[in-house]
Amino acid sequence: MSMTTCPECGKPVSDHAKICPHCGINRLNIDLGTSCSECGGSISNNARVCPHCGANWPVPGDSKQLIILILLLFAFLFILKLLSRYL
Ligand SMILES: [Zn+2]
Ligand SMILES: [Zn+2]
After folding, report:
1. 43 and 5: one domain?
2. In terms of domains, do 7 and 41 share one?
3. In the structure, what pLDDT confidence band is assigned to residue 81 with cuts at 50, 70 and 90?
4. Quick check: 32 and 74 in contact, CB under 8 A?
5. Contact 48, 55 (CB under 8 A)
6. Are 3 and 12 in contact (CB under 8 A)?
7. How many Cα atoms within 13 Å fall on the side-chain side of residue 38?
8. 31 CB contacts (<8 Å, ≥6 apart)?
9. Domain that holds residue 25
10. Which of 46, 63, 67, 70, by CA, is between 20 and 30 Å from 14?
11. How remote is the CA of residue 23 from the centroid of ligand 1, in Å?
């Protein structure tokens, strides 16, 4: 009996097990259409963490930058509004 890793939680699972004993996911139903941008391994669309390299998925860098950008935009609009009151 060979072992493989669960595409959802990354823990070792029996090759013949249809359901992961760790996270309870049905391994046969998992859509492995996404590949990790960090290590390139195939991961489940529902996975939040890459089971191969442990990277957060989706990689949080982009969303963090977007939030900072939106906050800056709001701050800019706020300052503009304040300025227009005194001009
Ligand atoms: Zn699992
Ligand atoms: Zn990875």
Report:
1. yes
2. yes
3. very high
4. no
5. no
6. yes
7. 14
8. 44, 45
9. 1-56
10. 46
11. 4
- What is the structure's pLDDT at 32? 63
Instruction: Quote the CA–CA distance of 71 and 87 in Å, as a whole number.
Output: 24
Question: Tokens at residue 19, please?
Answer: 């359901």
Q: Could you list which residues have their CB under 5 Å from ion ligand 2?
A: 36, 38-39, 50, 52-53, 55
The pair of three-digit structure tokens given for residue 87, joined into one six-digit string:
């001009």
Task: Say which ligand is closest to the CA of 4.
Answer: 1
The token duo for 38 is: 């960090």
38 and 7 within one domain? yes
What average pLDDT does range 65-71 have in this prediction? 89
Sorting pLDDT into bands at 50, 70 and 90, what band is 80? very high
- Ligand 1 centroid vs 19 CA: distance in angstroms? 8
